[in-house]
Amino acid sequence: MSADGRTLTLRLFGGPCDMTWGGFETEADGAVVIGGWEIDPTPDTPCAAMLINFTTTVRLPAPVGDRVIINASTGQPVPPSPAFPVPSPG
């Protein structure tokens, strides 16, 4: 999470054929729901079976503050900082 509480870095897991990916967020009832998506432009073409880590960010209209962050995939609360921090460039 950024210092101002408005930008969240998401970690997504996909495959080597996922050429486009991103994050989404929605806010309701004191919660921020976050998730990600990937697109394989050739889903009928064979692709190596390996897991790749992608990162993306989402920008919230207002800081997270005291709101709970919910993983859209699991429906479970997640901490505001990743369990496995994303390395900074450089």
How would you describe the overall organization of this protein?
By secondary structure, this protein is mostly beta strands. It has one domain. Helix content is 0%, strand content 44%. It has no helices and six strands. It starts with 6 loop residues before the first strand and ends in a 12-residue tail after the last strand.
Give the DSSP E fraction (strand runs of 2 or more residues): 35-45%
> What distance separates the N and C termini?
19 Å
**Taking strands numbered 1, 2, ... along the chain, how are they ordered across the largest sheet?**
2-3-5-6
Helix-strand topology string: EEEEEE
Which structural class best describes the helix and strand composition? Answer: mainly beta
Radius of gyration of CA atoms, rounded to a whole number: 14 Å
Helix content: under 10%
The major β-sheet equals: 4 strands, mixed
DSSP helix count? 0
| Weakly predicted, low-confidence segments | 83-90
Number of strands: 6
Please tell me the overall pLDDT: 79
Count of the separate structural domains: 1
Choose one word for the global shape. Answer: elongated
